[in-house]
Amino acid sequence: MIASTLATADNAVYDISNSGGGTCAVAGGKMRCLRVIVTPAGQIRMCDPALTVSKPTDPQAC
Questions:
Q1: Burial level of 26, CB count in 10 A (0-12/13-18/19+)?
Q2: Whole-model pTM above 0.90?
Q3: Which residues span the domain enclosing 27?
Q4: What average pLDDT does the chain have?
C-alpha cells in the first residue's frame, strides 16, 4: 500500500522477494526476485533487477 500520493511523473515500484527464501540474485544469492513498476498512466511492467547490468538489452531487464 502506498502511504502517500506520488508526484505526477513518478512510478510506483514494488520489489517482490521472499524474506524466508534466501538472498536475491541481484545481491549475490540464488533466489530470483522480481520488480513490478506501475506508471502514472496505469501501465504495469514486471522485470528482473538482476538483469540490469549483465544484459541491458534483455526485455526482462529493469
A1: buried
A2: no
A3: 12-51
A4: 79
